[in-house]
Write a structure and sequence with these properties.
Strand content: 5-15%
Strand order of the largest sheet: 4-3-5-1-6-9-2-10
CATH superfamily of the largest domain: Alkaline Phosphatase, subunit A
Order of helices and strands: HHHHHHHHHHEEHHHEEHEHEEEHEHEH
Number of domains: 2
Distance between the termini: 81 Å
CATH architecture of the largest domain: 3-Layer(aba) Sandwich
CATH class of the largest domain: Alpha Beta
């Protein structure tokens, strides 16, 4: 019926696995915990109890999902994945939630390679591969079915009872832990990424079942003057509003744009803190409070409305993708040298302008809306985002391992990338100026989200919105219009530059600029034509 012999029981391995995960894979959780509850005499017992409760939670989890024949593969998988999540949490103080998973799954190979470092490989080796090999070679002792079930029941009940006793013993501490500091639980590894994975998978299943719903079916452009609209929408990446000298940043990061009569809006908030959330939201009819990935993927967006109205829409991309926005309009990727003529260490944003004049000339009789999706300031390898000739601020951080650089070096690399965006936008404006005789021309630059650069120990982006600092949510919006653009008074528009706006306004602003009439258009939400 079963084999007796040497080895450890499944329950013992479960307990060992739980202890190891709690002690060695949750550095960020305990660091944030002790910041909230300092290591003083009144907190020592509570802090110790949290460690034990965490182990008990892991024991309960693995007791539910494993038995003798599955405990090894389950343990190995969790050790390998948890080693990588531990690295990102420990290095950048990020949270692995459903939006972060979505962003990771939608990124491309080049962006993934930017994240690989020696430290990451060491984490994977010593917290992933080595423990996995040890688990693989541990013999598991077989037990009679009755004994195995009884032992498992004891483990399940024991972990629950132990956790309950400790929570009751330190109830005053746990009351604040659960009510006022619930975000601390987001840093537990692996329980929170397990929860996030289930949540994300559920969203994907719902999205795949959805049928795309049309909106703005009444949209049309009425007869008007012979000039056609030519709008270039530059979709920025990871740019912070407070790093643009146009918005008061003391460093000169916009030496070219300051001479181009642009209007820079200084108080605009993003829809999300990641590309995968913000990009679909920017073009969606839903505002941030109602937006979801399922709604974005199952509902037409503003590009569909423009296309239906007779506007020639083109999306050129030097980033990973359009995140589903440009699925029904012409799309061109400029991520490789066979398409992008401006490539050195990586393909540059300015390469998206190649052949664009010829494209415009071939559609001279049409309204045109062109999206240029930048690589911009995508981190953590900011030093790769600009040619060496734009390295004005030195010394610059030249590694993806940001904690190895000083704050000054990180800032320098990031600001150099902003400087390159300034150059790119000035080239877009120059292109538009050359077409102002045939079109009413305009440029609208909007970043998808901001970035943390080490403030309060935070790096990169992607924190849950309610936790995210302003550095991740406050984004730049810059507009430029040709002199012959009807009904646009630059000076009146400039008076709005400090008004509070968000990505929610862009759907209606785009329709207004393209003079599209539809029941879905809300003039009050239009930054350009709406109220002061």
């Amino acid at each position: 019926m079963y084999k007796r012999g040497s080895g450890i029981s499944t329950n013992t391995l479960i307990v060992v696995l739980a202890v190891v995960l709690a002690l060695f894979y949750n550095q960020t959780f305990f660091s944030n915990l002790t910041t909230t509850y300092p290591i003083i005499w009144n907190n020592v017992g509570f802090l110790a109890s949290v460690a034990v409760v965490l182990v008990a939670a892991f024991v309960f989890l693995f007791s539910l999902i494993s038995h003798r024949k599955t405990i090894k593969p389950i343990a190995i998988v969790f050790l390998l994945i948890s080693s990588i999540t531990a690295y990102f949490m420990d290095s950048y103080n990020i949270i692995i939630d459903d939006q972060m998973l979505q962003n990771a799954l939608l990124t491309d190979t080049a962006e993934i390679l930017d994240l690989i470092s020696l430290k990451m490989l060491l984490y994977f080796l010593f917290l992933g591969i080595v423990p996995a090999i040890i688990v693989y070679h541990i013999p598991i002792r077989a037990l009679p079915l009755k004994s195995a079930l009884y032992g498992r029941l004891q483990l399940l009940l024991g972990s629950l009872i132990l956790a309950a006793i400790l929570i009751l013993a330190f109830s005053s501490h746990y009351a604040t832990f659960f009510r006022e500091h619930k975000t601390l639980r987001f840093y537990t590894n692996p329980t929170f990424y397990i929860y996030s994975t289930i949540k994300y998978a559920t969203q994907v299943i719902e999205t795949e079942k959805a049928v795309i719903q049309p909106i703005g079916e009444d949209a049309h452009i009425p007869a008007r003057n012979p000039h056609r609209e030519l709008i270039v929408f530059v979709l920025g990446e990871t740019a912070r509003a407070d790093r643009f000298s146009l918005n008061g940043y003391p460093r000169e990061t916009n030496p070219l744009l300051k001479n181009d009569n642009v209007i820079s809006f200084s108080n605009v908030s993003a829809c999300g803190t990641s590309t995968a959330v913000s990009v679909p939201c920017i073009f969606s009819i839903y505002d941030r409070s109602k937006h979801s990935d399922a709604k974005a993927q199952s509902t037409e967006n503003v590009l569909d409305i423009l296309n239906r109205s007779g506007v020639n829409v083109l999306w050129r991309d030097n980033n990973s993708s359009s995140k589903g926005v440009a699925l029904r309009v012409p799309y061109e990727s400029y991520k490789s040298p066979d398409k992008n003529p401006v490539c050195d260490d990586e393909c540059r944003d300015e390469g998206m302008l190649d052949g664009l004049q010829e494209y415009i000339d071939s559609h001279a009789g049409e309204d045109m809306f062109i999206v240029l999706h930048q690589m911009g300031n995508h981190g953590p390898a900011y030093y790769k985002r600009y040619p060496k000739s734009f390295e004005k601020f030195t010394p610059a951080c030249e590694t993806s391992q940001l904690e190895e650089c000083s704050k000054e070096e990180i800032d320098n690399a990031y600001d150099n990338a902003i400087l390159y965006t300034d150059y790119f936008l000035s080239r877009v404006i120059a292109l538009l100026k050359n077409n102002s005789a045939a079109f009413e021309t305009g440029m609208l630059y909007v970043s998808d989200h901001g970035e943390s650069l080490g403030e309060n120990g935070l790096y990169l982006h992607g924190l849950p919105y309610f936790l995210a600092p302003d550095t991740q949510t406050q984004i730049p919006v810059i507009m430029w219009f040709g002199e012959n653009y009807d009904e646009i008074d630059n000076e009146s528009l400039r008076l709005k530059r400090n008004n509070s706006y968000s990505h929610d306004n862009l759907f209606h602003t785009i329709l207004g600029l393209m003079e599209v009439q539809s029941e879905v258009y809300n003039n009050d939400m239009d930054i350009v034509h709406g109220p002061d």
